Every structure is written in structure tokens, then in C-alpha cells.
TrEMBL record:
<feature type="domain" description="UDP-N-acetylglucosamine 2-epimerase">
    <location>
        <begin position="22"/>
        <end position="349"/>
    </location>
</feature>
<dbReference type="InterPro" id="IPR029767">
    <property type="entry name" value="WecB-like"/>
</dbReference>
<protein>
    <submittedName>
        <fullName>UDP-N-acetylglucosamine 2-epimerase</fullName>
        <ecNumber>5.1.3.14</ecNumber>
    </submittedName>
</protein>
<keyword id="KW-0413">Isomerase</keyword>
<dbReference type="GO" id="GO:0008761">
    <property type="term" value="F:UDP-N-acetylglucosamine 2-epimerase activity"/>
</dbReference>
<dbReference type="InterPro" id="IPR003331">
    <property type="entry name" value="UDP_GlcNAc_Epimerase_2_dom"/>
</dbReference>
<dbReference type="Pfam" id="PF02350">
    <property type="entry name" value="Epimerase_2"/>
</dbReference>
Length: 358
């Protein structure tokens, strides 16, 4: 069986790692298509190097741009690759523009498309990711859901065929890398950090970074805390500088380049709390048992909030107090599966291809 996996942005690479490993273990032919959406070493190559992902077979080199430009260019070039390779199935991951382009290209060419992380909803259409998720779910042939909530969300939209609860591939990724991170990452020593003595922050959502008032509120709150480590996404760096917030922030807290997955796992695991607007980081905080404060109005990972380990805080609220005061209330549950999602996913893709997709 020939499978094309389509990726382009940091969270796509992390989800690809365990799935690619499983595809190759079974001797299927994998064609990795990298759209080029993310391209800085620390947003891109570092994940291939550290997580043992094979070099992309195709690099489309699209880079940054408006949503229409970026998605359109990716769609054109992905179609060319699929025409040449004629895979039996395409796999797309999550909710980025690369996911949408890959899913659309496959659907228009009648190539079976499997969507990993299907059914997630924030119910906020101002998020570009929400548009991407809904569209990809509606044009995919196989819907691979990480949670029961995701299955229920699809049911409400009338999608009930070929919907499966697989658990979350990010649990697989974490399991594969946790021990390696413990032995290979020296990030705590390098930054002079003691376990549970610091807050870990990540911010990159357009609604936070591109809005000067929201970004200012977040920057002021982070400055108000004692010890913050902030691996800074290039989008956040660009706007912190543009709005004149960078210099003060850099004086007060540890602004560092985005880190690789191994360093990130250790930073997360040893943080006293995590402050984020990332989807994946909310989930990882929950898996690691670290209290999470999410700088958003909504989340697609609602189980983490319902379980009391994640709290949503809007930029208009007193963010610093919300961060300081938050205490998880309950035991965590096993909502994301046990780390066997990739094997189940490849089983299901084999079945889909073998059965002609019924
Ligand atoms: C994208 C995804 C988002 C995901 C995030 C993960 C979409 C619509 N958004 O958002 O869902 O959570 O990736 O990190 O697909 N930039 C660089 N170098 C890079 C990458 C980005 O400088 O390697 C800068 C550029 O100025 C670019 C900006 O970051 O314009 C935004 O990049 P883009 O890929 O468009 O969106 P993200 O905010 O990264
Ligand atoms: N991540 C990382 N280094 C960083 C920040 C995040 O390796 O400096 C990882 C993080 O551990 C998680 C993933 O990137 O696995 C989340 O991706 P991101 O926050 O970019 O996107 P989202 O999940 O919000 O789509």
C-alpha cells in the first residue's frame, strides 16, 4: 500500500512521527509531502531530526502568506504530487492550512483521505483552524477521532460513517519520546531552572498575537509573574516587536527560541504551571498532570477543562491572578487513550484501502 502523509507545520510533524513509524514498520510505502508552511530550523527540521522522521519526499516550499494564498498554492502543488504518485490513501493531521490543502487535494482527486484528529470543535469560526477542521472532516473518508467528544461532534454534523475512536497520536508521540527526553535534553540545566519553580508559556494564536490589546494584556501578565520561560513562536516574536512589547518582556522573563520536542517535554513536565493558547500544549499539560491556564475563550480540548485541569482565561480578565490562583480539583481521567492510536489508525487505513472505502 502506498500512503501519502501531508504535513507542513510544527504540530503536524509531531503527530506524523508515531504514525510514520507504524506505516514503515509494516513495510508500506510512505510518501511524505511537506508543504513548507513552517521553515525555520526550530519550527521544522528539528522535529524530523529528533523524532526520527524520514526526510520529506517532496518539499513544496510554500512558506508564509495570507490564508488564501498559502492554502491555494499548497492545493495546486499537492495535487501535482498526488497525480504523479497515485497513492492508495492520503493521511492529514490536525487543523492547519496544510491539513486543509492536503484533504481537499485528495478529495477532489477521489483518493481516500484519512483525517487524524477528526471531530475536534472549538465552535469558534473566527479561528482559521475551526474552518479547516470542519471542511477536512466533511471531505474525508476515514475519521480518526482522539476522544468521544469528537465522535459526538461529528454525529451532530451528520457524519457517522467510517468514524472511529482511536485515542490521540500525541499520546503515542509522548510515550515514544519521554525517556529519550529525560536522557538527552539538558534544557533545565542550560536555563538554570529547578523543577516546579517556573511557569512555562507559549502564545501564537492569531487572536492573541495580532491584536495589540490582547497581546499587551498577555505580555503584562507574564511580566507580573516571578519566573516565566517563554519559547517564543515566530508569529508572537514578530508582533511583540511590532507593538513595542518585546524589550520589556525580555528584561523580565526568559524569552527563548522555540525548542525541539524533547526539550519541550522536559520544560512542560517540570513546570509549576503552563500558560498557553496552543491546542497541543493544553493536551500535553493534561497528560503530564501540570495545571494549565489557556489564554482563549474556547477550547477544542474541553475534557481538560471539565476535568478541572485547564481553565480558560480571556485577555480582558486579570490574567496574572488567574494564573497564580488556579488549582486543579479532580483526578485526571484516561480521555486521550493509552498510546496505541497509531497502530489502530494504520489498521483502519489498511481496511479502508482494502475494502474500497465502504
Ligand atoms: C499555524 C497553524 C496553527 C498552528 C500553528 C502551530 C494555520 C492556519 N495555523 O499557525 O493552527 O497552531 O501553525 O505552530 O495553519 N513564521 C516564521 N517561520 C516559520 C513559521 C512561521 O517566521 O517557520 C512566521 C511568519 O511570519 C508567518 C507567521 O509566523 O507569517 C505565521 O505562520 P503560519 O504558518 O501562517 O501560521 P501559524 O501562526 O504558525
Ligand atoms: N512545541 C515544541 N516546542 C515549542 C512549542 C511547542 O516542541 O517551542 C510542541 C508542543 O510540545 C506540542 C506542539 O508543539 O507537541 C504544539 O504545537 P503548536 O503549539 O505549535 O500548535 P497547536 O497545537 O496549537 O496547533
Amino acid at each position: 500500500m502506498k500512503i501519502a502523509t501531508i504535513v507542513g507545520a510544527r504540530p503536524n510533524f509531531i503527530k506524523l512521527a508515531p504514525v510514520s513509524k507504524e506505516i514503515r514498520k509494516r513495510d508500506h510505502k510512505e510518501v511524505i509531502v511537506h508543504t513548507g508552511q513552517h521553515y525555520n530550523y526550530e519550527m521544522d527540521r528539528i522535529f524530523f531530526d529528533q523524532m526520527g522522521i524520514a526526510a520529506p519526499d517532496y518539499h513544496l516550499g510554500i512558506g508564509s502568506g495570507s490564508h488564501g494564498f498559502q492554502t491555494g498554492e499548497m492545493l495546486k502543488k499537492t495535487e501535482e504530487v498526488l497525480q504523479k504518485e497515485v497513492p492508495d490513501a492520503v493521511i492529514v493531521f490536525g487543523d492547519t492550512n496544510s491539513t486543509l490543502a492536503g484533504g481537499l487535494a485528495a478529495a477532489k482527486m477521489h483518493i481516500k483521505c484519512a483525517h487524524i484528529e477528526a471531530g475536534l470543535r472549538s465552535f469558534d469560526k473566527r479561528m482559521p483552524e475551526e474552518i479547516n477542521r470542519v471542511l477536512v472532516d466533511h471531505c474525508s473518508d476515514l475519521l480518526l477521532c482522539p476522544t468521544r467528544t469528537a465522535i459526538d461532534n461529528l454525529k451532530r454534523e451528520g457524519i457517522v460513517q467510517n468514524v472511529h475512536l482511536t485515542g490521540d497520536v500525541m499520546v503515542d508521540a509522548q510515550k515514544d519520546c519521554e525517556r529519550i527526553a529525560e536522557s538527552e535534553s539538558h534544557i533545565l540545566e542550560a536555563l538554570g531552572l529547578k523543577p516546579w519553580s517556573y511557569y512555562l508559556a507559549t502564545v501564537h494564536r492569531a487572536s492573541n498575537t495580532d491584536d495589540p490589546e490582547n497581546l499587551r494584556a498577555i505580555a503584562l501578565a507574564l511580566q507580573d509573574l516571578d519566573d516565566v520561560v517563554f519559547p517564543c513562536h515566530p508569529r508572537a516574536e514578530k508582533y511583540l516587536k511590532k507593538f513595542g512589547l518585546w524589550d520589556d518582556l525580555e528584561k523580565k522573563i526568559r524569552m527563548i527560541k522555540p525548542v525541539g520536542y524533547l526539550d519541550m517535554l522536559l520544560l512542560e513536565k517540570n513546570a509549576k504551571k503552563i500558560v498557553t493558547d496552543s491546542g497541543g500544549v493544553q493536551k500535553e499539560a493534561y497528560l503530564l498532570g501540570i495545571p494549565c491556564i489557556t489564554l482563549r475563550d474556547t477550547t477544542e480540548w474541553i475534557e481538560t477543562v471539565n476535568d478541572g485541569w485547564n481553565v480558560l482565561v480571556r485577555p480582558g480578565e486579570d490574567i496574572a491572578s488567574a494564573i497564580r490562583d488556579f488549582r486543579p480539583r479532580h483526578e485526571r481521567q484516561d480521555v486521550f487513550g493509552k498510546g496505541r492510536a497509531s497502530a489502530m489508525i494504520v489498521d483502519l487505513v489498511e481496511k479502508l484501502v482494502g475494502s474500497g472505502g465502504s
